[in-house]
TrEMBL record:
This is STAS/SEC14 domain-containing protein. The lineage of its organism: Bacteria, Pseudomonadati, Planctomycetota, Planctomycetia, Pirellulales. Gene3D superfamilies: SpoIIaa-like domains. SUPFAM superfamilies: SpoIIaa-like. It holds the Pfam family SpoIIAA-like.
Length: 118
């Protein structure tokens, strides 16, 4: 599995670590976690950490579009932590498609990303 999820109900934060390629099946774990946290906390924050990440398979792209449409108002902030220039560009491309505040952090700035979300 390319995704590891940790739900922090006290902080209203979802921590998502991804590697390899995201698949449609990864969203069967991701989306229910998001929905549980939204139900518990209202608007949530997401820490999205990419390590050795290679993007999305085609089925996962469609799941991501459906997810973004459904939850565009439920996510307050997204901190994206990555290692590659294309991941930084991806964070900028995502901004017009969500009501969330999105900020990119380099791989060695994960602690700063956590502080920004708090």
């Amino acid at each position: 599995m390319a995704i590891v999820i940790h739900e922090d109900f006290d902080a209203g934060r979802l921590e998502v670590k991804v590697s390899d390629k995201l698949t449609k099946e990864d969203y069967t774990h991701f989306e229910p976690a998001v929905e549980r946290l939204i139900e518990s906390a209202g608007k949530i924050k997401i820490l999205f950490v990419m390590h050795d990440f290679h993007g999305w398979e085609m089925g996962a792209v469609w799941e991501d579009i459906k997810f973004a449409t459904k939850h565009c108002r439920d996510i307050e902030k997204v901190a994206m932590v990555g290692e590659a220039q294309w991941e930084k560009w991806m964070s900028a491309i995502c901004k017009p498609f969500t009501m969330s505040t999105i900020k990119y952090f380099e791989a060695d700035q994960e602690q700063e990303a956590r502080q920004w979300l708090a």
